[in-house]
Specification:
- The structure is a homodimer of 248-residue chains.
- Chain A is of the alpha+beta class and 248 residues long.
- The first copy, chain A, folds into two domains: 27-157, Sandwich (Jelly Rolls); 161-246, Arc Repressor Mutant, subunit A (Orthogonal Bundle), CATH 1.10.10.10.
- Chain A contains seven helices and eleven strands.
- In chain A, the strands form three sheets. A four-stranded antiparallel sheet of chain A has the order 1-8-3-6. In chain A, strands 2-7-4-5 form a four-stranded antiparallel sheet.
- In chain A, helix 2 (123-132) packs across helix 3, helix 4 (163-180) packs across helix 7 and helix 5 (194-201) crosses helix 6 (205-217).
- Chain A binds a DNA duplex (30 and 30 nucleotides) through residues 162-163, 193-195, 203-210, 212-213, 225.
Chain lengths: 248, 248
DNA sequence: ATCCGTTATTGATGCATGTCAAAACCGTAC
DNA sequence: GTACGGTTTTGACATGCATCAATAACGGAT
């Protein structure tokens, strides 16, 4: 409940990971208390982006990873012809830009879905630091491998599951990510448009819309615009596993 | 042209990345000459697996990454109910296990598609070494981010492209990977069964088969079993971009 | 060489989802 | 408040691919 914001008196104008309420979700997770100071040294905190603004652009020089403090970010790849493919949604405490680590240019474009504040980790400093702090390096590997795994899960969802299953999975994913931040896991507002959901899940907008109303008619959710309430989480979980059962 | 195999007299029975013909594809790519020795120290070379044998299993303790020397490996995730999802194919010079870096257990199962030899990189030693060699660390980040990107590309392929486009893309991918090894890019034998292709691309086996024969009738490829010849690479490339053009 | 299990091909049919079209809704600016 | 562009919903229709079913080709073992 209580948000456990420790007031830490050092350098009030400067970045402070210590007093960030997300510190246990973000990079510092695996880092020792005294190492945290060194991470703070390289972080540029508090940049703010308005809805629709680009945090970075595909094919421009890769300089930094960004941790979301508040708001939400979507990443997408624009193919040669201008087709957009949404590759992910990032909520507070999550790190954007890992798919570009070790590359010269950003592999995707990131833009704010709503008013969003971020912390910036310049990659040169970050690599230097991970070379010195084995725990931090290990954590970076962990985050990156998580992203690979997540991507595989997504591919699996896209290739084997129905529209209902994909949407149920997304809703549950968002739910648990809200819960991690001590917010309601059953009552939240979607940061992204139906269009983005459709694109991300490889569906047509119309299909997304239809599934939403179907779920609503079944009493599983209640949705008005971006405002969503999960009325029957169990049912949603069943939907995601439905597919599995059938083939047994 | 010439394969530039330098005979390096040190420790003939021990691992030697120096004299591996894949060294410019594998980990050492970005590593200084003198750093290569230190990498050699941690590598366990020459383990051999027969077709069907497991290199490692999902949910068992993560100990090592493996570089393919010869043969081919497929990785897959087994979901709770036993459904298999193929997540990747790995050819000589490619590194398997990156999706488990920083985790306690392997995130997927890897098995040999044919008789396969690998080099093993114990992860504890590897992390220790990347902490000391910034170039190697950078290279690891690069490889991992490549895998994220590849995974996104796959998701894109699965969510937006037709069966023909997916299969054309796979054939071209394999082609370029054979070419990297200075082998024919137009005449090769598929290391995997139709079943694996179907699973990987999110299609039914029958569909894969049908597309193969359709391509054959169009004179784009010539296939007998796993033996494949790409007769018209341009046409294949057109197929993969076909989708893009339509929506312009 | 022959047999048998696995893998691959081919055909017929049904369904989920894309596409096209239009109406309803929403937020924003004037 | 009203008017507008963009988003969301709903409906009718078309189609690509999965599914079921059967045959054919392959490959390893005897």
């Amino acid at each position: 409940m209580a948000q456990a914001i420790r007031l830490h008196q050092a350098s009030p104008l400067k970045a402070s990971c210590h007093q960030c309420s997300l510190s246990n979700l973000c990079l510092p997770l695996a880092v020792e208390e005294n190492d945290l100071d060194r991470l703070e040294d390289i972080v540029q905190q508090g940049r703010i982006f308005n809805r629709g603004e680009h945090i970075f652009d595909q094919s421009t020089p890769f300089r930094s990873c960004f941790a979301v403090k508040s708001g939400a970010i979507k990443t997408s790849i624009i193919s040669e012809n201008g087709e957009e493919q949404v590759t992910g949604f990032f909520m507070p405490g999550e790190l954007v830009g890992l798919d570009s680590m070790g590359s010269k240019n950003y592999a995707c474009t990131a833009r704010a879905l709503e008013r969003t504040s971020v912390c910036e980790f310049p990659v040169d400093k970050l690599e230097e630091l991970t070379g010195k702090l084995p725990d931090l390096q290990h954590h970076m590997y962990h985050l990156m491998s998580q992203e690979i795994q997540g991507s595989h899960q997504l591919a699996m969802l896209l290739s084997k599951n129905t529209a209902e299953e994909r949407i149920a999975a997304l809703l549950l994913s968002l739910s648990s990510r809200f819960q991690r931040r001590r917010m309601s896991g059953t009552n939240f507002s979607l940061p992204m448009a139906r269009n983005d959901i459709a694109n991300f899940l490889g569906l047509a907008v119309e299909t997304v819309s239809r599934v939403f109303t179907r779920f609503q008619n079944q009493g599983i959710i209640s949705a008005r615009g971006r405002e969503v309430e999960l009325l029957d989480v169990e049912a949603l979980q069943t939907v995601t596993r439905e597919f599995s059962r059938q083939n047994t």
